[in-house]
Amino acid sequence: MQKRLGLVVFSAILVLLMAVAAGCGGGSGGDSNAGGEINEVTLKLAHNAQVNSPIDLGTHKFAELVEQKSSGKMTVEIYPANQLGGNREIIEQTTMGGIDIVVVGLGVFGYLDDRFMMMQVPFLFRSQEQIHEALDGELGNELKESMLENSIYMLDMNWDRLPRQITSNKPIKTIEDMKGQIIRAGATPPIEVFKRMGAEPTKVPLNEMYLAVQQGVVHGVELPTDYIYDYSIYEVNKYCNMLNHTYGTLGVGLSAVTKEKLSAKQLQILEEAAKEAGEYQNELTWNQQADYEEKLAAAGMILVKPDDITPFVEAVKDMIPELEQIWPNAKGMAEKIYAIEAE
């Protein structure tokens, strides 16, 4: 009996020692969240840009880099042009893990946190450098933290977009010219600003806006020139009013649900790939800026520059208190943005 009891005790001690040894053995194995683990995984990425646009090509570069960095163990499937739903739908699906990665303009994240709404207020930022400085500093960190609280981990927020313009069938050079214009807008910030300038902005999904302009439901749209060209708006509008009213970027957001299933190494790969692909996308975007303007002109559009942008900028400054009431989480953000000198 004593011999059998001794054997049991010895076996128990041996199991305990093996467990301790395994616990001290580092992160080379174990579950999928171990630091060095790269398990096979397929990730679903959604965006709203047209196929072969700079944004779409940027997402393909991202997928290529992820595959390379993971030695083929990580695959990214790309669903462009709102194939998986409108902007709000793909953001909500990402929070729930139905979509793993979403690439959309910062304003779209405003559906989850209204601080992102302020980032897309027309005439607030006056250069691309100014918005990058904001995103690379304290303000950017606050936005990342707010998204994580809303189940999205921001891999990168510096994928550039071209400045936004307004199309129409009459020139828009002054605030007075905005009055009565029914303008398609895809996000809340331009709607709130333009209606205070006398326009009648309304939301229309990207895949419906061509018909909306053609049928006279709206007079024009507000979009970057690449979207204006890629969605063939030049066929239904005569003027492209070069207001540069919104400088913005895209965010690359990873579902927090998906993040919990990835190892530290896999997350590092996604972050590195997002940054490198963003640099590639930015180069494509700015190299094509003049090209898109030339293509719009060649297609018959007249590009109109405003007489003076200052009245628009000053009008928005006066609107900030009202906008902060609509988006209380954004209170004080405009002041921080104005403190960053536009280059």
From TrEMBL:
Protein name: Tripartite ATP-independent transporter solute receptor, DctP family
Membrane-crossing residue ranges in chain numbering: none
Region forming the signal peptide: 1-21
NCBIfam families tied to this protein: dctP (TIGR00787), TRAP_S1 (NF037995)
Family of this protein: Belongs to the bacterial solute-binding protein 7 family.
Coiled coil feature spans: none
PANTHER family the record matches: C4-DICARBOXYLATE-BINDING PROTEIN DCTB (PTHR33376:SF7), PTHR33376
Example GO biological process: transmembrane transport
A GO CC term attached to the entry: outer membrane-bounded periplasmic space
Listed Gene3D superfamilies: Bacterial extracellular solute-binding protein, family 7 (3.40.190.170)
This protein's UniProt keywords: Receptor, Signal, Transport
